[in-house]
Amino acid sequence: MQDLSDTAQTAPMPALQISGLSKSFGTFTALKGIDLAIEKGEFVCFLGPSGCGKTTLLRAIAGLDVQDYGTILQNGRDISGLPVHGRDFGIVFQSYALFPNLSVARNVGFGLRGSDLTRAQRKARVAELLSMVGLDGQAEKYPAQLSGGQQQRVALARALAPSPGLLLLDEPLSALDAQVRLHLRDQLRQLQRDLGVTTIMVTHDQDEALSIADRIVVMRQGEIEQIGTPEEVFRHPATAFVAGFLGDMNFIPGTVASENSVSVGQIAVKVPDTTGHDRGDRVNLCIRPADIMVGKFGDETPNRMDAKVESMSFRGNFHQLSVFCPAISQNLEIELRHQGQGGHSICEGATLTIALSPEKLVIFA
Amino acid sequence: MVNPVPAIPSERRKIRVSTSGEDVLLRLCLIALGVFLVVGLLLPIYTLLSKGVQDADGNFVGLQNFITYFNEPRVSVVFFNSLRISVISTAITLLIAGGYAFALTHSRMPGRGFFRAVALMPLLTPSLLPGIALIYLFGTQGFFREALLGYSLYGPIGIVMGEVFFTFPIALMIVLTSLLTIDRRLYEAAKTLRAGKVRTFFTVTLPAMRFGLSAAFFAVFTKVFTDFGVPITVGGSYPVLATDLYQKVIGGFDFQMGAVVGILLFIPAAIAFLIGHLLQRGHSAGIDGSAVIYIPEKSRGRDIACFVFCAAVAAAILGILLMAVLGSLFKLWPYNLSLSLASYNFTAHESSGWSAYGNSLKLAGGTAVFGTALIFFGAYLLERMPGAAWMRAVIGFLCMVPLAMPGMVLGLSYIFFFNNPSNPLGGIYGTMTILILSTVVHLYTVPHLTALTSLKQLDPGLEAVGSSLKVSRFVTFGRVILPVSLPTILRIASYLFMNSMTTISALVFLYSANTKVATISVLLLNDNAMLGPAAAMSVLIVATSAAVVSLQWLLMQGLLRRTNAWRGKEA
């Protein structure tokens, strides 16, 4: 899977190189030997359920909660034990942490005071940043007078003001309304592309991660499950957890029968190959609800079976079906696009023919 | 597990954050706070406690002193007097405060704001004032002495009356808070379930009050048990622990027995404090500030009853205050009731004259300035400093201890600790410094909690953002934390000033001829039967407290107006 965002061969030294990072809080192990390299200009998302360690990892990179073991190199410089102000990054928190008593301009200019810029230069820089995030004319307002989306952009401008080498975003969009969130997500992506600043964003929202990141780091229980482009982690999940976490997934338990079939219930399901699994191993077959085909199939179509519709609900762009398949004695979820109905009159209680195309099936132990 | 990154071999050594100059400075500040609390609180208490288990020659005798105390009925009767007075006063105070709080929140009687304001007025007074006013009202020559049906004011009756006046606002504030947190929706639910008024009271109102009432019980009990001002003025020959302690130490120089009595004064207060603390911990989860405030329905009968009750209580409070003012203006009570300002000519009545009042201002000003800076910055260090968790926990606990420490016990322990010739800090004994030190320590906990609450509400990311922008924490503190916290700081300063004006307990053991303060002057004038000047000095204290509270209110209004823009809805 080669795509445009794969920049590994162009950058000799990673912007961030993390090795063997571990951290515990009392008896709880938050991070277990994290190894990760992030290239210059990359937009990386740490994705995972709450408690998976993604925020802890971000805070370790920031120096806010320093790791117990392991090293962090930024552009080759060891920053493992440096205090927060000795590192080079800007940060945006979920709560934004804007200074309530300072105007927007003073918030944005907060980190410029110690720099060697003149007063006029500072003013120009603040104006430039505000226009960059689309907040011209709001300079003299206070944070409390702004909407949530505007506050988020002030926080972003403030973090970017000293031109940091690394931008850390801790769930920066999750406090916003759905509409604003979508809009700001695109804006954030565009801004990051324009500035080329290496960016790490923590999120628990898989849609957000899929649509914004160059690479996604999927985490679980303090460990990295998979690192890859959005396509890779979505299409080729490395583990059952990743498969289930990124989008809906049907899990069908079965036993490896041959090189290219898995027996489930009374039938043998055809699969591309079973490399890595021995005959007789218990495995899970995974298929996304949208990848299950419904319609009339010829005899040459593999993995056909009957399915009885148990419930059906309208979801806007598709119908969500829950069907029972006697052949594998299991329920499956199906997302049925309107175009693909193929003349079926589908209602609860109806019997359909479905097919699980082998190339859409993924096998996990 | 996919892992494309070749791991750099790293030796398993624990990462230590290199400390910057800023971190060192913050830790030094924390250590300084710790040293302050150890010297101002822990070591003196330790000295007192160890004196309690020694004989006169300094040999360790275990609990022998206490056994002797309780084996001598003539001596231990004082302890039981204190217990009795405290229980009776607390019960009466809670009954009145409970009713008053209910009337303020659950009726639509007119004048609720006025009644609330009047009820809080005793907070401005030293506890000597109700005693003095009661002498005018019910003393042997009092205007209404017949009302006591021949019983004497001096003794349990007077003490209980004075303590009820003195502790009423404390109980009221606690119960009021618990009533205000009842969610209106609970009443609406009760109504839709067709519960009657009586049943609603017992299932909604009373359970909510129960926590407030029990918290108030412990607060009031402690206050009465350790109060000195009321029993010294109207206690007559009925000794309680506080007056007994005073007589033993100041009258008889019996420090050994003084230590024993001091510890006895401390123990019930400490127990009450602990129980109250545990109660609070269990309850605070229930209050989340999201309750919809209850607005009672119209009910003529209830409103009239509530009004009559509150009017009677308010009249009693105002009566006592007014009596003190009038008393200070009589030319020569009870013989010549024409009005004059002669009592205010303190130079004619007491050697220290007006300087006592000046000393009080110095003490209150010093405590407000020094105390506010210390307490607020201390709370900042404890709440918002990274690292040093262990040290912060210990110091945080020390900050709570003064609440359990009766002022008199603190004062007595200061004598033992600072008046010891081997103490290098002995030089502050007899100076204004020791008065300010003892007052700051004595009043520490309440403003500390105020500061903590306010600092907890600030976004935890503020300093982190500052540090990421390479701005020192001290700069962030000065440019953000401090301005945002100004209302809290103002509240703390005013609390410290007002309470330093009215306090007497710790000072009674620590003042010297040059540092005599106004409350001490009231005590001495009263001792010398100069009731008019004593009343005059008390009135002066109340007037000063009231002025400070008004000033704080004005400043607060101005401040909130000026910072309206960024405070948003809060203002």
TrEMBL record, chain A:
One of its GO terms (cellular component) is ATP-binding cassette (ABC) transporter complex. The keyword Thylakoid does not apply. PROSITE patterns: ABC_TRANSPORTER_1, ABC_TRANSPORTER_2. Residues 16-246 form the ABC transporter domain. It comes from the Bacteria. GO terms for biological process: quaternary ammonium group transport. The keyword Transmembrane helix does not apply. Keywords: ATP-binding, Cell inner membrane, Cell membrane, Membrane, Nucleotide-binding, Translocase, Transport. It holds the Pfam family TOBE_2. Gene3D superfamilies: 2.40.50.100, P-loop containing nucleotide triphosphate hydrolases. GO terms for molecular function: ATP binding; ATP hydrolysis activity; transmembrane transporter activity. This is Putative 2-aminoethylphosphonate ABC transporter ATP-binding protein. It comes from Pelagivirga sediminicola. The lineage of its organism: Bacteria, Pseudomonadati, Pseudomonadota, Alphaproteobacteria, Rhodobacterales.
From TrEMBL, chain B:
Residues 79-276, 357-552 form the ABC transmembrane type-1 domain. It is a multi-pass membrane protein. The keyword Transit peptide does not apply. It is found in: Cell membrane. SUPFAM superfamilies: MetI-like. Gene3D superfamilies: MetI-like. The chain crosses the membrane at residues 24-46, 83-102, 114-137, 157-180, 201-221, 255-275, 304-330, 363-382, 394-416, 428-446, 492-513, 533-555. Keywords: Membrane, Transmembrane, Transmembrane helix, Transport. GO terms for cellular component: plasma membrane. One of its GO terms (biological process) is transmembrane transport. InterPro entries: AminoethylPonate_ABC_perm-1, MetI-like, MetI-like_sf. Belongs to the binding-protein-dependent transport system permease family. NCBIfam families: PhnU2. This is Putative 2-aminoethylphosphonate ABC transporter permease subunit. It comes from Pelagivirga sediminicola. The lineage of its organism: Bacteria, Pseudomonadati, Pseudomonadota, Alphaproteobacteria, Rhodobacterales.
